[in-house]
Design goal:
Shape: flat
CATH architecture of one domain: Orthogonal Bundle
Catalytic activity: L-glutamyl-tRNA(Gln) + L-glutamine + ATP + H2O = L-glutaminyl-tRNA(Gln) + L-glutamate + ADP + phosphate + H(+); L-aspartyl-tRNA(Asn) + L-glutamine + ATP + H2O = L-asparaginyl-tRNA(Asn) + L-glutamate + ADP + phosphate + 2 H(+)
Pfam families: GatC
InterPro entries: Asp/Glu-ADT_sf_sub_c, GatC
Subunit structure: Heterotrimer of A, B and C subunits.
Helix content: 40-55%
Family: Belongs to the GatC family.
Number of strands: 2
CATH topology of one domain: Histone, subunit A
CATH class of one domain: Mainly Alpha
CATH superfamily of one domain: Glu-tRNAGln amidotransferase C subunit, N-terminal domain
Radius of gyration: 28 Å
Number of helices: 3
Strand content: under 5%
Strand order of the largest sheet: 1-2
Distance between the termini: 56 Å
């Protein structure tokens, strides 16, 4: 497996807009090369009879059920608003329409 060059690490850092010193480039080149090697090892170990998964345990939906219950009427909600128009909150315009 080819090693990552210092120039390749510098190029990736430039794309990510990260400024690295010469010492950091040398250190990261070795570390990133190890990481790429570890990922390649995992790819070799993966067996065809093991299905891909995003999580080792089954996930369940933990949100509450959607139940209709009493709430404020639109009139009550708008009662404390500084300005309302056509049954809605009126707010200052922040975008110009051209």
């Amino acid at each position: 497996m080819p090693e990552l060059s210092r120039a390749e690490v510098a190029h990736v850092a430039m794309l990510a807009r990260i400024q690295l010193t010469d010492d950091e480039l040398d250190k990261l080149a070795g570390q990133l090369d190890q990481i790429v090697g570890f990922v390649a090892t995992v790819g070799e170990i993966a067996a065809d009879d093991i299905p891909p998964m995003s999580h080792p345990l089954p996930l369940v939906n933990v949100t509450r059920p959607d139940v209709v219950r009493p709430s404020l009427s639109s009139g009550d909600a708008l009662a404390g608003a500084p300005d309302a128009q056509a049954g809605r909150f009126a707010v200052p315009r922040i975008l110009d329409e051209e």
